[in-house]
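Meet our chain:
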Amino acid sequence: QAQLVESGGGSVQAGGSLRLSCAANEYFRNKYSMAWFRQAPGKEREGVASYDTEGTTTYANSVKGRFTISKDNEKNILYLQMNSLKPEDTGMYYCAADAALWAGLSDYEYIHWGQGTQVTVSS
């Protein structure tokens, strides 16, 4: 059974940093495209960063230069390093995965989702 488990969320002040982790279980032993999404209260879910099976990364304009997505293929863990955090980065952050070789920042591209980890940035 597919399982994605996020961790690393928390509360920080503006300008701070957090690193999110997404542990994928054995179901994802083959190559999967993966991504981070976020959803703020009252807003639609939006793609933050993606990492496809070739290691190509894509970022939302709002996080370029501040966030870095990476993956440990041996441990099957996806990371999101978030620096220079802003209050508008606040939201629930979700990890997503799909067997597609290439995938971007649209949520319809992903079939598997984690439960999310909360990130709160105060001004």
